[in-house]
Amino acid sequence: GFLLQTSEMLRKICMRNLVRKYCRGLTAERKVQLQQKVVTSAVFSGKKEGYLESLSQPFLETRLKENDLNPKVLQLIRGEIIKYVTPVIKYDRNGFKARERLLVLTQSSAYVVEMAKIKQKIEYSTLKGISTSNLSDGIVVIHVPEDNKQKGDVILQCEHVFETVTKLCILANKQSVVKVVKGSLRFRIGSGKEGTMVFTVGPEPQVFKDKTGQLTVV
């Protein structure tokens, strides 16, 4: 019994030393990757299609550099450190027309940007929720408070959905507000109105307004 106890103790000490050695050997960049992937796992593991395939794909620091942004936009958000920029498709809350936009994440806010204009600013402190579906689409809905500052919730389609949502919830420090939904979700259009988005499976990916006026994501 004593020998078994000693063996188990030595095994634990050996394992601890190996882990410590591994952690010390990690580069700063690799540590950031692992920290982000831990958050991605907590949010999406077993909940959203494509999660397992995303594991082997390292997250990029950003998809676009700061100097890819229009100088007018940089001037408007001066004083804030830009952390992540990615191209997105934004869907209008009324009519669901698709628009090419940029999502810019700073240390304190998320911006939806069109060329030289800021179309919407969401301060992380006011962010109410982040929703995605359980399917393999890249739709992300950023839920905002109902006040005069905001036009309504933001409907985006992101190519790198796991990366974008992970960056957003880490920067906002709001991992707990991310929801992975099945079937449908409600979003706020503005002026007290709500809309519905339906998620379904089909032969080819598409996003369209159906006959009942709902946004349908296939």
Characterization of this structure:
This protein is α+β, with helices and mostly antiparallel strands and 218 residues long. It has one domain: Pleckstrin-homology domain (PH domain)/Phosphotyrosine-binding domain (PTB) (PH-domain like). It contains five helices and twelve strands. It has an eight-stranded mixed sheet with strand order 4-3-2-1-7-6-5-8. A four-stranded mixed sheet has the order 9-10-12-11, with no helix packed on it. A hairpin with a 6-residue loop joins strand 1 and strand 2 (98-106). The protein is globular and about 75 Å long. It comes from Poecile atricapillus. GO terms for molecular function: cytoskeletal motor activity.
Compact overview of the structure:
The protein has helices at residues 2-25, 28-44, 51-54, 71-76, 161-172; strands at 82-91, 98-106, 109-114, 117-123, 129-133, 139-143, 154-158, 178-181, 184-190, 193-199, 207-209, 215-217. It is of the alpha+beta class.
**Rounded mean pLDDT score:** 91
Total count of domains: 1
Q: Going across the major beta sheet, what is the strand order?
A: 4-3-2-1-7-6-5-8
Kindly state the percentage of residues in helix.
Answer: 25-40%
Low confidence ranges: none
CATH homology superfamily name? Pleckstrin-homology domain (PH domain)/Phosphotyrosine-binding domain (PTB)
For the record, give the distance between the C-alpha atoms at the N and C termini, rounded to a whole number.
61 Å
